[in-house]
Amino acid sequence: MFKDHHYLDNKINKAARCYIGVWENQVVAFSAVITLPCGTLKNSWRGHRTVVLPDFQGMGIGVNFSNAIAQIHVDQGHRYFSRTAHPRMGYYREHSSLWKPTSKNRKLRKDVSIKNMYKEHYFDFKRVCFSHEYLGNIVISKDFNE
Fold first, then answer.
1. Which residue of 13, 34, 80, 112 is most buried, as measured by CB atoms within 10 A?
2. Which residues span the domain enclosing 126?
3. Domain tally, the chain
4. What are the angstrom distances between the C-alpha of 25 and each of 10, 65, 133?
5. Whole-number pLDDT of residue 4
6. Cross-strand bridge partners of residue 33
7. CA-CA distance, 104 to 83, in Å (whole number)?
8. Does some domain include residue 141?
9. Terminal CA-to-CA distance of the chain, rounded, Å?
């Protein structure tokens, strides 16, 4: 039901954790996340696909759904990253205290070559992407009875 509504393709990594978003008993969003294969970052996950059905786009569902999934991973003790070429999601994260830009944010990926990248991520060569790490809902409490 979501495969025709994503700007990349409909191939989802077989190891992905998949989520659906439901609003008023109707499925409206899909997201998949995968582990971040990196030698320097341990216990990290990243967004793999997020899709909101056309009738529900522009309502903030995508960014809030993405935040909720990221928060689940942070609550489990993981780091969570996401990269997107979608302007609305990227600009939302630029102005959100829940996300911080990575060193690759809004930069053309010159460290990725055709030899070592997956075909599905070819869009990185064609456009600048937003890249962020989710910080989560940081709660700072202070005991005023000191």
1. 80
2. 3-134
3. 1
4. 24, 16, 31
5. 60
6. 17, 47
7. 9
8. no
9. 56
Cα torsion angle, 44, 48, 73, 142, sign: positive
Q: DSSP character for 129?
A: B
0.85 cut: is pTM over it? no
Query: How confident is the model at residue 120, as a pLDDT?
Result: 46
Q: Give the DSSP H/E element, type plus range, for residue 109.
A: none
Confirm whether 142 is domain-assigned.
no
Tell me which DSSP letter residue 77 carries: T
pLDDT < 70 positions in the chain = 1-11, 109-127, 138-146
Which pLDDT does position 112 carry in this prediction? 53
DSSP labels for 12-61? --TT-EEEEEEETTEEEEEEEEEE---SS--SEEEEEEEEE-GGGTTSSH
Give the other-Cβ count within 10 Å of 36's Cβ: 16
